[in-house]
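re the bet — no i am not wrong, look at it urself. input seq straight from the record:
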Amino acid sequence: MVRLIPGSARELMSEWINSSMNNIEIINRLASINVWTSGTRRAPHKPLLLLLVLARCSRGEPREIPYREVDQKLGALLREFGPPSRSYHPEYPFWRLQNDGIWLVRDAGNLALRTGHSDARKSELLRTNVKGGMTPEIYDALRNDHKLLIDVAQAILDAHFPATLHDDILSAVGLDLERSTSSRAKRDPAFREKVLRAYERRCAVCGFDLRLGAVDVALEAAHIMWHEAGGPDVECNGLALCTMHHKLLDRGVFTVSVERRLLVSQGVSGSQGLNEQLLRYHATPIREPQSREFMPSPKYLVWHGNQVFRKPARVT
């Protein structure tokens, strides 16, 4: 990712603000932010910060948010919805969103930068409790048009998170959306049918196979490597799962090892249903598809284990 120095960021901002934007341009601008990538690693920092700010906007709160508040709230969101990590860095999106032409940090040019980088030091952001926020033009447009705010939030969710996590993320940031249609990333409409057929229309974990007439009920095709992270719509990247186990997979409650055994996170606790729905399957093989060509690919299983699963696994 190319990082601009604060002066260059302000020049880019000035040039862009001088041109008028319509709603489609605002949606595209916010949904297509430059997200850091390294191979297939996830970096949901900027999307989560934008959703946090959209929630503030929906409540009529001031445009600028103090960094200390971002450090606390975004840090919690990253621990909940980001990939497992030894450390989390809310300061990165707070500073680097300036490079996307949608964000301003007050008095950015006066802050001490990290040695060899164009990022402000986290200690400096905390010491000064500097404020940042969306550009006034974008923020005012979102504040004055609730449908636009909804569409932007939905576009960000669709671009960066699986649908099973949307409600949990919205609840965590404090954003109450009236659902609207949005343009999701194109998917193979036959993916669900292909995966359910591969697993003979039974949950690969518990064997759930309820039907209403000839229609499968609460049985879904789950991506192992999320579609939003570039996972393809192919059988070897899919699992037939009941609605509950699909949600638990996407939350990192369990993963599937390259030996195709279900592993439950040590972080999971509870009473009702824990043994029946999870622990009884721990370290046991999942149900295999009807053909070896549909077996879960190790590369997708490794991705899920590294990027979604809440390590470590329980001792077998």
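see?? The first helix runs from residue 6 to 17. told u. also Residues 1-19, 179-184 have pLDDT under 50 and may be disordered. so pay up
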